[in-house]
Write a structure and sequence with these properties.
alpha/beta; Rossmann fold; seven-stranded mixed β-sheet; 7 strands; 22% helix; binds adenosine-5'-diphosphate; binds magnesium ion
Length: 149
């Protein structure tokens, strides 16, 4: 599987990437964000939401999932605090509801992700530098990567 590596040198460059990916959005798009605390997952999710016309984004850490109405519905999930009881959360209901799902800490629910998705891994290099590794799984996501890189 092809991966696409991008080095970003500032929060603004992460925001720009999120905006570029947002411009390629489609119903039932699923974006999985993977990386340590403070690596930039929420920065990405907020910038994506802003580009969809959603401004009041707060972290869903204690709610697991927050829904917003933008150009498409946005389902912002943070599964950091989920237990092993993930099956009962019904997250998979959201994958094909016609909106965009952004899942922070998606690597914690590997067995509950949709077959096709865009994975973005955030690797912290120093205070402001991150390597973002885009892994498209499925043809639609390959096109997204080809268009934004
Ligand atoms: N290149 C970068 N991309 C994203 N965030 C960055 C970058 N450089 C520094 N930061 C800072 O790192 C932090 C990322 O926080 P956050 O997005 O909440 O992380 P996470 O959701 O992965 O825990 C923010 O304080 C942000 O300002
Ligand atoms: Mg976060």
């Amino acid at each position: 599987m092809n991966t696409y590596k991008i080095t970003v040198h500032s929060e603004m460059e992460t925001i720009e990437l999120a905006q570029n990916i947002e411009s390629e959005k489609f119903p039932n798009m699923v974006i999985c964000l993977i990386g340590d605390l403070g690596s930039g997952k929420t920065v990405f999710a907020k910038a994506f939401a802003h580009a969809m016309g959603i401004v009041d984004v707060t972290s869903p850490t204690f709610n697991i999932i927050k829904e917003y109405n933008g150009e498409l519905p946005l389902y912002h999930m943070d599964v950091y605090r989920t237990s092993n009881d993930i099956d009962n959360l019904g997250l998979s209901e959201y994958y094909d509801k016609g909106g965009v799902c952004i899942i922070e800490w998606a690597d914690l629910i590997k067995d509950n992700l949709p077959k096709e998705r865009l994975e973005i891994e955030f690797k912290m290099i120093d205070e402001n530098t991150r390597i973002l590794v885009l892994k498209p799984i499925g043809e639609k996501y390959v096109s997204v990567c080809e268009d934004v890189i």
